[in-house]
Specification:
The chain is an all-alpha fold. The protein folds into 2 domains: 5-85, no CATH class; 115-369, Receptor-associated Protein (Up-down Bundle). Helices cover 79% and strands 0% of the residues. The protein has helices spanning 5-8, 23-38, 43-52, 57-71, 76-83, 88-100, 103-160, 166-201, 207-214, 220-241, 246-255, 260-274, 279-284, 295-307, 310-367. Helix 6 (88-100) runs antiparallel to helix 7 and helix 7 (103-160) runs antiparallel to helix 10 (220-241). The longest helix is centred in the middle third of the chain and has 58 residues, at 103-160. It starts with a helix and ends with a helix.
């Protein structure tokens, strides 16, 4: 069997950005390709048929390149490697499937894992979308009040010549600032905030900072740990069952890991196992691993390795943690709702006090003999 150095010695001919925005069609393409191969259709004919039903011009170009490479005598896994369509762990599964005659089965596994990866991103985005929406609407309403409505009240308060309470003075200062600088300050703030989010969560060299923040956030931390553990267990079990050595499997999983902390753990496990150590000794050399691999999961892996049932145990871990992640997603929404209500209530209470307190003071002054 070829080693992972095969990937390093093959350059990818297509730019990586050609695969952006074709996630849904890519999943359907892989699933349909596996079904057609299982039905006995030659891969070239399958590619031609799938190309006709594909709407994305970028995916059509990739399929045409696959067809050309395979027709020219290139192995299927090498053609997929050049296409940049799939991550390296998937290329390894295609390579093993091609060599063992189980290409269609491994393509099904790849499609399943791609769906799981997409589900992870959807769970994280759905968990964050609700609080982001509520806070954004609150900010928009607050700025609109301060910019368009409160200036009229500000004139009334000034003419009354009252000693204004602190909340009112703060609100009037914000109103004054927005009237003078709002048309410049708000676009600058939005642009700066967008750049900050990009650097924190999307920029390749700095997104580990955003990942560290997410891994420290209650609720979201649990969801990430469960989904990543499920992903690791399922991938490792699938690759071991396909015949890929555990050291190479861990390296491929590390390359496809979404979070840098997990990438480092997988590589450390790989190094330990490559030196001939067991999972038990490997976890002992990684004291921080228990933060990301719960003790009961570590014990399950240690016992499974000793009993020779590692693959089956990994599938059990993957199934259980995936079910837990679904529950955590629902619980996260339940937890966030009262927190957001409190935040919104505090904002409304502040504005109400800022407006009502001067009026109350005025009425109190009128009633004083």
């Amino acid at each position: 069997m070829k080693t992972n150095t095969d990937f390093k010695n093959n350059s990818r001919s297509e730019p990586w950005f050609l695969t952006l925005g074709i996630g849904k069609e890519k999943d359907s393409f892989i699933t349909d390709l596996s079904m057609m191969l299982e039905a006995g259709i030659p891969i070239i004919e399958a590619l031609i048929a799938l190309k006709k039903q594909t709407a994305s011009t970028r995916l059509i170009k990739i399929i045409e390149q696959l067809e050309e490479d395979i027709s020219g005598g290139m192995q299927v896994w090498q053609a997929f490697l050049n296409s940049t369509l799939l991550p390296e762990y998937a290329i390894a599964l295609i390579r093993v499937g091609e060599e063992s005659g189980r290409l269609n089965d491994n393509l099904k596994l790849i499609a399943s894992q791609e769906q799981k990866d997409k589900l992870l991103k959807q769970r994280l985005s759905s968990s964050m979308s609700y609080p982001i929406l509520v806070l954004s609407l609150t900010a928009i309403i607050g700025v609109s009040l301060a910019w368009f409505i409160l200036p009229r009240l500000a004139g009334v308060f000034v003419n009354l010549k009252l000693k204004l309470p602190l909340p009112t003075r703060m609100l009037l200062s914000a109103t004054h600032f927005l009237n003078n600088w709002g048309s410049l300050a708000i676009p600058v703030f939005i642009f700066t905030f967008a750049i900050f989010i990009y650097i924190l969560f999307f920029q390749k060299k700095t997104k580990f900072l955003g990942q560290a923040l997410l891994l420290k956030t209650p609720g979201i931390q649990t969801l990430i740990l469960e989904t990543e553990l499920s992903r690791f267990s399922y991938l490792l079990a699938t690759m071991l069952r396909s015949g890929i050595p555990i050291v190479e499997s861990l390296e491929l999983i590390a390359k496809s890991a979404n979070f840098r902390v997990y990438k480092n753990i997988y590589l450390a496990l790989r190094d330990n196992l490559e030196e001939g150590n067991s999972f038990q000794k490997a976890f002992l050399t990684l004291p921080k691993a228990k933060q990301y691999f719960p003790p009961h999961v570590q014990q399950m892996l240690i016992s499974a390795e000793q009993s020779g049932k590692l693959e089956d145990t990994l599938f059990v871990i993957a199934k259980n943690t995936e079910e837990k992640s679904e529950i955590s997603t629902k619980n996260l929404s339940v937890i966030l709702e009262p927190v957001l209500l409190v935040v919104v209530w505090l904002g409304v209470a502040f504005v109400a006090l800022a407006i009502v307190l001067p009026i109350y003071n005025l009425i109190g002054g009128l009633n004083t003999p």
